[in-house]
Fold:
Amino acid sequence: MPTYVTKTVVAPMPNLENLRKQAKLYLRWHRDGYYPVAATIRAMLPRYKHLSDRQVLAESFKLSDAQELVARQSGFESWQALKAGVQTMADAAKPTASNPVLSDVEAQLYVADIKASCDYFTSKLGFTVVFTYGEPAFYGQIKRDRARLNLRMVCEPVFVGDIRERESLLSASMTVDSADEIHRLFDQYKSAGVDVYQALKKEPWGARTFIVRDPDGNLLLFAGPAL
Structure:
């Protein structure tokens, strides 16, 4: 789930018809037993918060419930309040629309076991678990400070042969703000016994980088200023 940072920009105005379609989509996902929607329902609707994914999907979930979920995601207490808010924004909107603003980006890593990956990233690389989906988990997210990585379980190798190592195909790149931090981070990971694919070095463009390899072969680059 992405995070949002408050900025002094004008956000795109919600479209009521799109919100209606979104509510119907949540309703269909619940009826189809789609596990990821259970976590969203539990997080947004207090009456479901004590239930497991399986129990949420077994509970009654009507269109009005889905509309309330969409309303709460948009910061309103009810569907009626959302409709009134959208109308107010429509009345106050300027005729010219602002350009869409990309607020965040997250890398996605392909792994064979979500729990094993979470254990590795928390014990070796200093990340914490944001969430996992499914019973057993097939999707999740981890973070360290402002860096977020999504974990997606796959049953077969994504890369053919040794192409990942031969071409040094990175799965994610993360940065720190100072030369001291990149040195200390590299030392921390070496002390933790992390698999170092590329030792700390100065790049021709002025950065200092190193690359580690997780148990699934994902190559993770860390970079910082050289000075």
